[in-house]
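Subject: Interface between my chains keeps coming out wrong

I've been trying for a while to get a sensible model of this assembly. When I model each chain on its own everything looks fine, but I need the whole thing in one frame so I can look at the contacts. Pasting all components below, labels as-is. Any help appreciated, I'm running out of ideas.
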Amino acid sequence: MWAFVTRRLLYMIPTLFVISLVSFAIIQLPPGNFINTFVAELRAQGQGVDNAQVRALEERYGLDDPFLVQYGKWISGILLHGDFGQSFQYQRPVSDLIWDRIGLTLVLAVCTTLLSWAIAFPIGVYSAVRQHSVGDYVFTFIGFIGLATPNFMLALIFVWISFRYMGESVGGIVSPEYADAAWNLGKVLDVVSNLWIPVLIIGTAGTATLIRVLRANLLDELRKPYVTTARAKGLPEWRVILKYPVRMALSPFISTIGWILPTLIGGEVMVSIVVSLETTGPLLLDALSSQDMYLAGSFILILATLTVIGTLLSDLLLALWDPRIRHAQTAKG
Amino acid sequence: MRIPLLTAGSRRARSRSTEDDTDGRTAVAPQWKLVLRRFRKHRLAMASAVIVVMFALVGVFAEFVAPTTPSDYSADHTHAPPQRLHFVDTTDGVDLGLYVHGYESTRDEETLAREFTVDEDHKIPVGFFVRGEPYEMWGLFGTDRHLIGPEDPDERMYLLGADRNGRDMLSRIVYGTRVSLSIGLAGVALSFVFGIVLGGISGYVGGRTDTLIQRAIELLMSIPTIPLWMGLSAAVPREWGPLQTYFAITVILSLVGWTDLARVVRGRFLSLREEDFVLAARLDGCGPARVIGRHMLPSFTSHIIASLTLSIPLMILAETALSFLGLGLQPPVVSWGVLLQEAQNIHSIANSPWVLLPGVAVTVAVLVLNFVGDGIRDSADPYR
Amino acid sequence: MDTDSDVLLEVKGLRTRFRTDDADVTAVNGANLRLRRGRTLCVVGESGCGKSVTARSILRLIDPPGRIVDGEILLRRDGSDGRPAETIDLAALKPTGRRIREIRGRDIAMIFQEPMASLSLVHRVGNQIGEAIRVHNPMPRRQARQRVLELLDQVEIPNPERTIDAYPFQLSGGMRQRVMIAMALSCSPRLLIADEPTTALDVTTQAQIMDLLVGLQHQQDMALMFITHDMGVVAEMADDVAVMYLGHVVEKGPVDTIFHDPKHPYTRALLDSIPRIGGARRERLSTIRGTVPAPADQPSGCVFRDRCDFVMPGRCDRIVPPPIDLGPERHVRCLLHGGAEPEAEVTTSQEAADAG
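Reply #2:
Try treating it as a single job with all components included. I did that and got this:
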């Protein structure tokens, strides 16, 4: 098992390396020297910028150096000092701006994952065990709609409904009256009441996918001979199903967390933009629109890294869950 | 245990000789025919296929189908609500024929917002193949015939309402169909090239090449697509023309979208490589090109078609999301995502919810494409 | 005959049907079988003849769309294990109900063809056997574990202490089948149904497993229903034989009479297709003409007539052969041996429609 963990950790290194390259390439993509943009912006705001300052900036980001050297300066800044560079728009270090937002995104992603599972598991099992029942058709249909509707559409509809029928515009994780309050039960309840609908919206597509995967897997497993064996022992039907085929069907289910995470993060970004939650989404969009590239690149880097870590966790979970994977890995490693 | 499997031939004649004949015919029926036969039995997929064809026709003949052009505006009809299409006029006697009622608009003194009420007395007859706004069909010839529209070219018809410039939502959605569907198709076509080449190499060659390509795919899949797409499309220069942007967005979509297809192709290659008929072909002295081209590809064409069909909706969703955020296609290009930009303004949604209608088009298109793709996949492999 | 106290289970006129949108297949069509304590009944026939479906019908393990549509499956309890003596019609029980669950594993146990697929790969051996024990005899885990070790020892698994914590994918095919047998024996059933338990194994392992089964049967005085397509295995194991073809039991009787005096042309053909050691070298092994038709395409009249060398046109295609008594426990369904008289011209409505 430890060999497996070690190997998976080692695999992460090249992945993370390439991710950082891609993120840096995105930072570099917009045409033009960003220092010029920066200086132009400062001048537009009526601040004088002297040449020494410009030189210092150029020195710091190594603008005259080749791509790889610039990349080296950028990545070592992040790894050694946690310095993600400067946001031109906010004129503050990127690291000041992002961590709160990333944290909220993470909270949303975790909540959404848990909720998706909690919804998808019973429905998936029910749909497979009662295949062709009315309930199965209803859930399958709703699932398809959930898959087909872009979740920002759902968010828009939600915005419309709440504006129309509740007469208020939505948005924000913490209601104004709690904005400056310290954390207490009231504030937590407030956050929960503000969050559950976004979480539901973000999770729709993922939940629909999970239901489909679980249903399909379970349908395959239900016809396997070991299910008959379990029945032939005289076990009650629900115990047969929960202990054997569901257990087997969950293996692919667990491994899907890995690739559902990117979708979740993407969905979170989109939905947060629509209902203006103070997470990565709106700030990332803002940064990209104003070509505040260090800010945008850092977001992409961190989101991708988090996804890779999430995938790793789901792989480890899978190995714990399925002895075949555990033993196959030990045998090889 | 083998539960007796009922095959397509279960209604065969009873006598041996005819049964053998039917068996023989089934055995030589080409793969695609078998797939098609199974697909026909799939009612939902068949119905969806019909809708897909309708979408395609609308996209192809957008200029003709739309009642007017997408840029035809009217300052007097800002956010005009959808009109009801009447079939029979019963105000005095029974008068068959399509018509809509005109608007009576008033301006709210305080908010300056325009308010529309239906003007029952103002009847606008609607007809087919009427003259309207002139357009160039496929850039080839000019005409002013529209499939449907008000009979009097000076009247205005808003079956699905108007946007903030008084442009006809129906016409804009129709034009958007062309752009959104074609960008889905073009993106999938590009992904297809990437996917089949890299997936094929990966699956057929195996070994170190396979590992390398697989790592690359896993890596791409582990990056959250929306932020990546956002990052890449933000880099598309603003001063590029609509056509250039269109291609750039297509390339960006397929850069990220080819991985799924590559995995499908590789998986198929890997399992087929172990099949006896491939081994037989190889032992008969067929070279790799012939083994792949003649023996392996035909046996999973339908799987590829299924995967392609299932990736089109993903592309459409991605384009819609990007354009909605303002990072994808830009006006005056009309795509469903671009149309939805109007819905970013909460007051637009609140007062004129019909600006969300392009989203309905997206949902329906994605839904039916999914059904068709699933249908093809089920027919290609009835045991899964 | 019904008073025969050795009879454990009696199948009467069993009909199991699979109904789908496309067709309606009768996989078992009026089967009659009788299983006695301490004796082995071999059910033999080509694949697709309804052997497995018969076995699964007894334990009510037929998956939908399959269904028992007719007949009785009578289980006799003699009251020796403390439960009241009674006769239960299994065909009338609810397939997921409590009554049938009490019978599964306890009165009747079953082992299957593929030991790899029939065991869960993600649960330890001890867990899977222990569960079978505890479902009928609630006991502490520790005690159940002790019993599992005994069982593993009984089925001659070397090193039970290690095997009990192994996963099935770590065991060889023969070992897995032994685990299956241990599981089946865990509640000392009075009838063991073995559905081609050796087909997936290599020849040496086959012989070992068969020896083990015979030994255990004698030891526990169980009835054994052994399903196979291999006449060689039948010769070795059987006390009684039932030959099935396309859902019908075409011939049955004690093993000696079947082998030395086969009456049904199908039984003869099966016996002719056994290779004989010491036979003429270049002699071609005889085969049965044609293949088993799809169950949905049952011929009218006698189901075997299309492949029969002795077919009587005008009779075999019109008359469904009734079971003909040829002595104690000896039946055949073939018009060559009687039943062709006009008054015996019984055709079910479905088959009459098919013929017309």
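Reply #3:
Confirming on my end. The beta strands of chain B are 86-89, 95-107, 114-137, 141-150.
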